Amino acid sequence: MNQTVKAAIIGSTGYGGVELIRLLASHPQVEVTSVISSSTAGAPIAEGYPHLTEIRTDILDDVDPALIRSKADVVFLATPPGIATKLIPSLLAEGLKVIDISGDHRLKSRSEYETWYKKEPAEQQYLDQAVYGLSEVYGESVRGIDFVSNPGCFPTSALLGLIPAVKAGFIDLSTIIIDAKSGVSGAGRGASLGTHYSELNENFKAYKINKHQHIPEIEQVLSDVAGQKVLTTFTTHLVPMTRGIMSTIYATVQGGHGTEDFISLYRNYYEGRKFVRVRGNGIWPSTKEVSGSNYCDIGFSVDERTGRVTIISVIDNLVKGAAGQAIQNLNLMMGWDETLGLNFVPMYP
Ligand SMILES: NC(=O)C1=CN([C@@H]2O[C@H](COP(=O)(O)OP(=O)(O)OC[C@H]3O[C@@H](n4cnc5c(N)ncnc54)[C@H](OP(=O)(O)O)[C@@H]3O)[C@@H](O)[C@H]2O)C=CC1
Ligand SMILES: CC(=O)N[C@@H](CCC(=O)OP(=O)(O)O)C(=O)O
């Protein structure tokens, strides 16, 4: 008989949490038994999200580790930075499996976290314990463990687009530039000056230039893969669309490799990993082609004139960039097929 796992979601009323609810509704081996909110406990979740009417009749629970343990085996945290740091020690002590979607446990250095997030870091033992769940790269380390730190949305697209080339020495590590764009759901459900309609509509803007909290996350992983310190230039832009991330990556090619060499390298690296689709020569991915799905699509062009490669990597920030990859990690933690409950065809158009 197939094993079923009971799941709780802290931060159920945010975009990441509500996407977990949507995706888990069709997972064959997970039942969501507790949806949790710190500010609206006691209210039906469908009150804030009428699209869930008659799909989820739950009343939101309060954040209470013992209550969560009485209802669930695994807990997802889709909470703003600084919250998971405080909650996870007691959730792990209750014997729960934990998947942290926030950035609180991605950086292994406490001082780096403090510098980039401007918040009190988690205790070192929890940073050491958390396995960074970039599924296609570190999936084997996730199998059977209890605590996963889910990657950031931008790092997921940038790293999947870069790692095979970095590992194989196809690019000069000192030349990497990542030019990234995100839909506005990446900023969460809370309203803010920067994300309200008249600020965003028919506008295109860069933000957090050279200060984005995903810079040290990307550099930490690239350095790990390369076996030497790697620095990058990473710039984020807000696009007037709801979902999607596109990372356009530039680097100087080493070893005289052409576009077809990059395609073969990436196809070999991601062989058997269903959620990374490497495009053929001249077939560029767009965000709509992965929307609502757990896919990361990647395309390449080497410019023989400049000696640089352009790599385009797209994901849905709420799926492969958050809830979808978190479920992929749960599947790996449980020793299941990593694609379970995630076989969504992208929504197109
Ligand atoms: N949106 C995205 O595309 C991605 C987001 N992430 C990360 O996931 C996390 C959630 O993001 P997102 O869903 O967009 O954010 P939202 O702002 O949409 O949601 C945040 C959620 O956290 C809850 N929350 C706030 N304060 C607390 C608290 N003290 N204790 C418990 N719960 C709390 C909120 O509900 P309430 O206040 O009622 O408790 C709400 O449900 C963030 O860390 C974000 O960086 C990662 C990848 C992609
Ligand atoms: C569009 C937008 O604002 N996106 C957010 C992504 C937030 C996120 O996922 O970051 P952590 O999980 O690392 O906190 C940003 O750029 O900060």
UniProtKB/TrEMBL annotation:
Gene3D superfamilies: Dihydrodipicolinate Reductase, domain 2, NAD(P)-binding Rossmann-like Domain. Belongs to the NAGSA dehydrogenase family. Type 1 subfamily. The active site is at C153. Its main location: cytoplasm. Its EC number is 1.2.1.38. Pathway: Amino-acid biosynthesis; L-arginine biosynthesis; N(2)-acetyl-L-ornithine from L-glutamate: step 3/4. Residues 6-145 form the Semialdehyde dehydrogenase NAD-binding domain. GO terms for cellular component: cytoplasm. The gene is argC. It is found in: Cytoplasm. This is N-acetyl-gamma-glutamyl-phosphate reductase. HAMAP family: ArgC_type1. Catalyzes the NADPH-dependent reduction of N-acetyl-5-glutamyl phosphate to yield N-acetyl-L-glutamate 5-semialdehyde. Keywords: Amino-acid biosynthesis, Arginine biosynthesis, Cytoplasm, NADP, Oxidoreductase. NCBIfam families: argC (TIGR01850). It holds the Pfam family Semialdhyde_dh. It is an enzyme of class 1 (oxidoreductase). InterPro entries: AGPR, AGPR_AS, AGPR_dimerisation_dom, AGPR_type-1, NAD(P)-bd_dom_sf, Semialdehyde_DH_NAD-bd. The keyword Cytoplasm applies. It catalyses: N-acetyl-L-glutamate 5-semialdehyde + phosphate + NADP(+) = N-acetyl-L-glutamyl 5-phosphate + NADPH + H(+). GO terms for biological process: L-arginine biosynthetic process. SMART domains: Semialdhyde_dh.
